[in-house]
Design brief:
Two copies of one chain form a homodimer. Chain A is built from seven helices and 13 strands. Chain A has 246 residues and is α/β, with parallel strands linked by helices. In chain A, the strands form three sheets. In chain A, strands 3-2-4-1-5 form a five-stranded parallel beta sheet, sandwiched between helices. In chain A, a hairpin with a 7-residue loop joins strand 9 and strand 10. In chain A, helix 6 runs parallel beside helix 7. The longest helix of chain A is centred in the C-terminal third of the chain and has 15 residues. The radius of gyration of chain A is 19 Å and the shape is elongated. The interface between A and B is large, with 78 and 78 residues. Strand 7 of chain A pairs antiparallel with strand 7 of chain B, so a sheet runs across the interface.
Chain lengths: 246, 246
């Protein structure tokens, strides 16, 4: 029997937004590998081994998945959202680069609905014009790069979707970034805090930057800074399709 | 009976990547509204009316959908990919802003797998680090804004996903943008041309910018300019998770 490795996205956290191809891969799997809370979303069944690991262990987890596939297992590495967006796909290819003996393995990525698309859908269409996605975690990049990129993104008038906005390990950085946003975009610019979207505990707030506070975000919150022309219409927020010259 | 309007994403074009919640909305619908080729993807059945319209008619289509919902129909507006990314959601909210009498309607957006996530999955993880999405169509914004935004995005070292890269109406603009990319990112930077991903006719090419030609893209192609640290590993292309200071 030949093994295989599928790197799959579970979407925002509701069964109704998991792609059928991902469900089929999970049903065919012998081994599920991933961060604990994501692996917990997979129903146990006979013949399926669940390998849940800690948050910071991406490379070890990726290597383990490659080893299992090389040993003939049908492995699915699970991420929430889309595996290619600040999730496990890049870690698996990094592990593969370090272990080229695994290059002949049957490796596939199955996309998913990433958190910013889910959050945007729940509030309207704040990503309806050009936008960017920035991971605010400084585990793997210096904070000064995050600040530099944020300033350029606002000057380009991208809507900005922020992943991993805030953690206990670095409570001051998000406060600092809100100051940068106010400096670059002004106090009236809208910012969206979308927590646990499509879940029963969903909680969404839209405020002008002047009223934004760091504690409005935690690690389960997707934060979206609107672009300059974004407007409210009733309970919705949307970015108009049209734009003027810079 | 009260009407409703769901703005739904059909994903990249394979049944296996349509969310179950979207399938359920399609099954409950009385009316499907959308651009012809997307409406054609919906199976006909008794009691379902299909309203296919031309590509440039987004606002008229959106208004028609609101009118049908107000008349008590269960309407689904379909887009390919995600409806919130260069698709119908922004147009519906624009139409809603112009017709606030419809604000009390039951309106929901259901997200989908947008083209850049599907393309990225098929080639590896080129969007595994910070990235942006730019619509290259100049129907609704001046070309100089596109060029300005592209330059800032490359200076921020975002990977750049380009939607609607090229059309018969503006064949020279994409050639000009490739020149801008070479100027800002250098001739060695990788660029991905991913056509009809997850379809039988899928065709993906990865080349350095020096070898990129405008005719490698058409309107069914997702183009992704890699960031500076993106590498090949075997048949895959991925953006490492780590980054250095600017």
């Amino acid at each position: 029997m030949t093994g295989s490795l599928v790197i799959a996205g579970l979407g925002p956290g509701t069964e109704g937004l998991i792609a059928p191809d991902v469900m089929a891969a999970l049903e065919a799997a012998t081994d599920i590998v991933g961060y604990g809370p994501y692996v917990e979303r997979i129903a146990a069944r006979e013949g399926l081994r669940l390998h849940a690991t800690d948050n910071r262990q991406e490379i070890e987890r990726a290597r383990h998945a490659l080893e299992l596939a090389a040993a003939g297992q049908k492995v699915v590495v699970v991420s929430s959202g889309d595996p290619g967006v600040f999730a496990m796909a890049a870690a698996v290819f990094e592990a593969l680069e370090a272990a080229p003996a695994y290059l002949d393995l049957d490796i596939r990525v199955l996309p998913g609905i990433t958190a910013m698309l889910a959050a945007a859908a729940r509030i309207g269409a704040p990503l309806g014009h050009d936008f960017c996605a920035i991971n605010l975690s400084d585990n793997l990049k210096p904070f000064e790069l995050i600040e530099h990129r944020l300033r350029l993104a606002i000057r380009a008038d991208f809507a900005c979707a922020f992943y991993n906005p805030r953690s206990r390990a670095r409570p001051h950085q998000f406060a600092r970034l809100l100051d940068v946003m106010r400096e670059e975009a002004g106090p009236e610019r809208l910012i969206i805090f979308a927590r646990a979207v499509f879940r029963p505990e969903e909680d969404i707030a839209v405020v002008p930057l002047a009223e934004a506070k760091p504690e409005m975000a935690d690690m389960r919150t997707m934060v979206i800074l609107a672009n300059a022309s974004t407007r409210r219409v009733g309970r919705f927020v949307y970015a108009p399709r049209k734009a003027e010259a810079p």
